[in-house]
Amino acid sequence: MDENDWKYHGEGNKSLVVSHVQHCRVLRLLKYPAEDSENPPQTAEQAFRQIQNIVDFSSNVMSSLLGDKVVHSGEVVRLPLEFVRQLSIKIQHQRPAWRCDKVMDIYSGCALCLPNLTSPTLHQPTPPAPPLCIEIKPKCGFLPSPKHVSKDIKTRVCRYCMHQHYKVANGKWKRRSLYCPLDLFSGNRQRMHFAIRHLIEEPQNNLKVFKGGQCIYSSKEGSNESPDMNSLLHHLRPYFLQGNNRINGHMTTKAVLNDVIQVLVNALLSAAGGDGGQVTDRAGEGRSFCEASLFNNERIRHGSQGLPASSVLSRILQTQMLDTLDIEGLYPLYRRVEQHLQDFPEERTRLQIDGPYDQNFLEKVQKCWMEDDGSVEYAAAKVT
Ligand SMILES: O=P(O)(O)O[C@@H]1[C@@H](OP(=O)(O)O)[C@H](OP(=O)(O)O)[C@H](O)[C@H](OP(=O)(O)O)[C@H]1OP(=O)(O)O
Ligand SMILES: Nc1ncnc2c1ncn2[C@@H]1O[C@H](COP(=O)(O)OP(=O)(O)OP(=O)(O)O)[C@@H](O)[C@H]1O
Q1: Residue 382's closest CA among 340, 333, 344?
Q2: 153-186 in b/e burial notation, b at 16+ Cβ within 10 A?
Q3: ∠ at Cα 17 (13, 21), nearest 5°?
Q4: Which ligand neighbours the alpha carbon of 118 most closely?
Q5: Among 11, 13, 99, 202, which residue has the most ligand 1 atoms within 8 Å of its CB, making it the best to mutate?
Q6: What are the E-state strand segments in 144-273?
């Protein structure tokens, strides 16, 4: 393998991604804290198992919850160590400085190989234009159950909106985003439109736009400058020329933005495969509106239709809602498991703390709606 066939693509807190320059493939490599760079924190076999667990969790649990049409699980691959070392040197200067508290894993020679979702293989001999890909990290779309929280504010203002104040105060981002996940997950088209417009205006790490596999729009952490929305809309204009919003054959910037948002709302409400018809409506539970959202409260009363059950967003929300406990409800369960494992370390395997994430594990996750019966089995299913 040749490191020159691969280029830096992006990274998060846990992994670094490189893409192949010709084929629609990416490699997702583990990251370790920089202070561990001399001594890898796990053996190659442990790293292999960690990545295999990710594949199993994705194919046996997430595929079943979200729909196998929208989940790509990939496969674990073993790579020559020399290739990985050269790759790490090659991409180092492209990494954002604020992510360099961690280093790419150059010891295990293991990675997750996935299709490159930012430049999908198109089954057309000459595609009309480079494919567009819009990545959204929507965050949690509901308020935690009042049963488990000690501060009343948590039942009125969502975690994302509270975090915005914290992130601006500590300098992570310069401006507060007016995006609210509860607006996006509302199923109300106007609220969703409002949410996506604010995601585009202040994307932080919740939205990226790729054209032909290249990132053309994203935020830079700590930077004073906002990403250039006019340049983004200039890139997008040719994709939206067939609408009615043209003045003398020319589309205004505002019209391009509206069309882009409309396409995204339609995609998010479209079926992910499987059953349809019902709606996911949290309005009755009083957990679907965040007081920090600037969306006009009055307008919500005139049409909160909820999400179509088969939609991608509804699937994501239902999956998120398997965990409604908030950290305050979860931590005592974590302590219950911890205590049990101190007394009975051999129980780690039976409770599937480190996997395998198989059919049996999925059944435990799905039973999570049950009330807490005080058992370690209940706690382990919630915590793992
Ligand atoms: O806690 P949050 O909501 O800030 O989410 C963390 C993310 O921050 P965000 O707010 O999206 O910028 C954070 O993302 P970034 O590092 O900011 O890109 C991670 O995804 C983190 O997950 P983990 O610790 O790697 O498992 C996320 O932590 P978990 O809450 O998933 O543990
Ligand atoms: N299959 C893929 N195709 C194209 N790009 C991808 C793919 N998987 C990940 N990426 C890109 O790489 C970036 C980092 O990947 P990912 O979010 O999986 O990292 P992470 O460290 O697990 O994230 P987090 O910070 O949430 O823990 C993503 O934001 C996305 O832009």
Answers
A1: 333
A2: ebbbbbbbbeebeebeeeeebbeebbbbbbbbbb
A3: 160
A4: 2
A5: 13
A6: 207-211, 214-217, 246-247, 250-251
Encode pLDDT of 278-329 as tens digits: 455 554 456 788 999 999 766 665 556 689 988 999 999 999 998 888 999 9
Q: How many angstroms separate the alpha carbon of residue 14 from the centre of ligand 1?
A: 9
Write out 56-107 in H/E/C secondary structure: HHHHHHHHHHHCCCCCCCCEEEECCHHHHHHHHHHHHHHCCHHHCCEEECCC
Digit-coded pLDDT (tens) for 103-122: 999 999 999 999 999 987 76
What residue has token string 């996997």? 355
What residue ranges do the domains of the chain occupy? 3-115, 133-320, 326-383
CATH architecture of the domain with residue range 3-115? 2-Layer Sandwich (3.30)
14 close to ligand 1 (CB < 6 Angstrom):
yes
Q: Are 213 and 118 in contact (CB under 8 A)?
A: yes
Nearest ligand 2 atom, CA 135: 31
Which pLDDT band, with edges at 50, 70 and 90, does 379 fall under?
A: very high
Nearest CA to ligand 2 atom 26: 12
Contacting residues for 23 by C-beta, under 8 A, at least 6 apart? 116
* d(C-alpha 100, C-alpha 103), whole Å: 6
CA of 333 to the centre of ligand 2 (A): 29
Greater confidence (347 vs 364) lies with: 347
